[in-house]
Structure formats: C-alpha cells, structure tokens
Amino acid sequence: MILYKFWRQLMAFGSNKILVIGEKETFIIKVLLGKLKDAGITALFSKADVNDINEEWGDSGLIIYYLEAGERMDGDVATFLRDKLSDNNKQLALIGDAANTKEIIDSFPPHIIYKTFSRPIDYNAFISDVGLYFNMVAEGEMKKSILIVDDDPNYMGLVREWIKDTYKVSMANSGLRAIKWLGSNKVDLILLDYEMPVTDGPQVLEMLRSDDETKGIPVIFLTGKDDKESVMSVLALKPEGYILKTSGKAEIVNTISKFFVNR
To answer: Does residue 68 carry a pLDDT above 80?
Structure first.
C-alpha cells in the first residue's frame, strides 16, 4: 500500500492512462487492471484487434501488450502499433515469456519498446516501473534531446518549432556557446551549422571529438550549399549526416527520425 500511495502522489502531476491489450480479458489481465487502478492509474482493456485498439486508444500514455504462452502478435496489429506508437511518440511494454516477446522486440524500432516483463508478474515491480515511466514522461526525459547550433536565430527557431513536440530541444547561437553548454548538459544529437563566424561547424566538431566527454555525441550538419564540392567537404568530416537548409519540415523531421530509428 505504501508503494501505491507513493505512485498515486507522484503521478497526480501528469497523464497516467494505460491501455492493456490481449487476445482476451483473462483472469490475470483483470487482476492486472485492478492492481493498476489501485495504484491510481486509469487502465483500460482492448482486444488484440486493430479497430478495438484504435477505439480505446484515446490519450493513453503507455501501451501494454499481454501475451499468454504460445501467443503471437498478429501482423496487422503489429503494423498498426508500430505506426501508431511512432506517430504519437508513445512506447510499448510487453508481458510474456522471453520466446514470445523476442519476435516483437526484433520487429519493432528499439525506441518504441519501453520494457519487457516476465510471467508470472511481480506486481509491485511492475507498478514501480510503470510509475517510473510516467514520471520520466512528466520530466521530459523520455524524449530524445537535440541541440541546435546556428548563428541564424530565425532558422534555428523555425527548426525548433518543427521538432519541439517530439524532441527536447535546446539552442546555441555560436559554436563556443554550444561547447560551454555541453560542459554541464547531455544531448542525444547535435544539429550543427556548417558555416558560422568565429568558430565554424568543422572547428566545433573537431573540439567535440577531442574531448572524451563529447566525442561520442552524434552530429548532423546543417548546410546551405548543395553543390557537389561543398557536400563532399561536409561528408569528409564523417558526421552522422547532413541536412540542406533549403529542406522543408517533412524532410528535416524524417531525417532526424530515421537517424534515431537506425541508431
């Protein structure tokens, strides 16, 4: 009861709805739903059917898929969940035997899978992990973090608007400010302007790679030049990629998304 009260207080600050999916609402699933509700978590059940899942989805913050021994996730359901979870920036937790869940894990992008739980379920541990998930969401820690470095505040602000709903975005208007910021902050990706006054993109990248604390941070260059010679100069520095500044929202968002999916 102490654990449940703790999570009830914690999760009062954010969305705490869960959708539990299964082939049918078994006794175990009913017990699970009850445990979640006792912990102050709104929990709904849906049959493993695309129409039923879509109807019950609502504003669920976490999706749970329960697999009995020998069960597999239907192909249409798997495709639907992959697309829906990505579009809504949500994650999936799996409950089942290792053999049951492995196929799903192997076929889903890693960033979509939150965690797997073995049967029989340790309910206290399960509730604790669910509470941790919602706490991280409330703190913004589930989102990948991106630092945009560009001396053009208008362009930098535009890119931020395009990606801020999906990623945790920070900005620096010079290479030196970016280096200073990284001294006390961590980031999953840097979008780095190739051409900047004083300290340009290549110089910033060299500084990052010479420091043990920052050498592993992936960098995608932002460049305004698309001629062959300029592109080859960018690629020679071996960044994770480059984005033309003339690209529209869709191309930039897709480039960043593909980077995180493939990483």
So the answer is: yes
